[in-house]
UniProtKB/TrEMBL annotation:
Highest taxon listed in the record's lineage: Bacteria
Organism whose genome encodes this protein: Streptomyces kebangsaanensis
Name of this protein: FAD binding domain-containing protein
UniProt KW keywords: FAD, Flavoprotein, Oxidoreductase
Pfam families assigned: CO_deh_flav_C, FAD_binding_5
PANTHER family reported for this sequence: XANTHINE DEHYDROGENASE SUBUNIT C-RELATED
Residue span(s) of domain FAD-binding PCMH-type: 1-182
Length: 299
């Protein structure tokens, strides 16, 4: 099949993009990487009347780091930053390592060369890698309109499977990820049926251990609900305890509780997802602890 007829506008500035979106907000879609949107248009699953192509906009492919006493240190990601930009660390600390490790799970090289991180966030596939990482790390997104803007935590922006808080006429203008303390150990693990499949489950982990005790823990799970979730009960199990076998086992059990009401999948029932979640959490925590050991050896 081919797309239904549509109008096309290529814009050269943020202001022009917002004007074009405001002209017909209910029937206009933004074209960035197009790796999901164009496929859905070809299948006629979506039929936008207009496409606003933001690829000519200078500066939309920018990555930058900001540091201020009030807000801390953040990595800013523009709407045209491609997946492949993260295949190598974009900063020298644990956030750069985690983004790089995660990027290699994203689709395939041709898709990573064209698709964008913010496009993935806007598409909101329930097991996509970038939404999982954004929720895990308390990332923020900036949404822009012709007459203003707003900022949301990623956890509020992602409202369900293929569903976000993005309103008609809004542009997902930026995502911000907080830089992690230098001693943080990080990991990202996935389980999928085949190399070409979407992930069935995935886990992102970030652990900060000081004097033999976990002082901060972040665990994000995808594939156990309609959108990625923070396993906060599991995080609470870990914080304040040595990261030993008992603590890791308890955290894995707590995290698997999120599989009580998973999305329907003929390849993975509730019992399977609960079992797989426990295994992946243990694996992610183990890799994060190995990462901490590597940091110590390098220092």
């Amino acid at each position: 099949m081919k797309p239904a007829p549509f109008e096309y506008a290529a814009v050269s500035s943020r202001e022009e993009a917002l004007r074009e979106l405001a002209a017909a907000p209910e029937t206009t879609r933004v074209l960035a990487g197009g790796q999901s949107l164009v496929l859905e248009m070809n299948q006629r699953a979506v039929r936008p009347a207009r496409l606003v192509d933001i690829n000519p906009v200078a500066g939309f492919d920018r990555l930058r780091i900001s540091r201020t006493p009030d807000t801390g240190a953040w990595l800013h990601v523009g709407p045209l930053v491609r997946h492949r930009a993260f295949e190598r660390p974009v900063e020298a600390g644990p956030l750069g390592r985690l983004l790089a490790r995660t990027a290699h799970f994203v689709a395939h090289p041709p898709i990573r060369a064209r698709g964008t991180m913010l496009g993935s966030l806007a598409h909101a596939h329930p097991t996509a890698e970038w939404p999982t990482l954004a929720v895990t790390l308390d990332a923020e997104v900036d949404l822009a309109l012709a007459h203003g803007s707003r900022t949301l935590p990623a956890e509020e922006f992602l409202t369900g499977a293929f569903s976000t808080a993005l309103a008609p006429g809004e542009l997902l203008a930026q995502a911000r990820f907080p830089l992690l303390p230098a001693a943080t150990g990080v990991a990202f693990v996935e389980h999928r049926r085949t190399g070409a499949s979407f992930a069935q489950l995935s886990v992102a982990a970030a652990l900060l251990v000081e004097e033999g005790v976990v002082v901060d823990a972040r665990l994000g799970l995808a594939g156990v609900a309609a959108r990625p979730v923070r396993a906060r009960d599991a995080e609470h199990v870990l914080v304040g305890r040595p990261p030993n076998e008992r603590a890791i086992t308890a955290a894995a059990v707590a995290a698997s509780a999120y599989t009580a009401d998973p999305p329907a999948d003929p390849h993975a029932d509730v019992a399977y997802r609960r079992h797989a979640a426990r295994i992946l959490v243990r694996r992610a925590l183990g890799q994060a602890l190995d990462d901490i050991s590597d940091i110590v050896e390098r220092s």
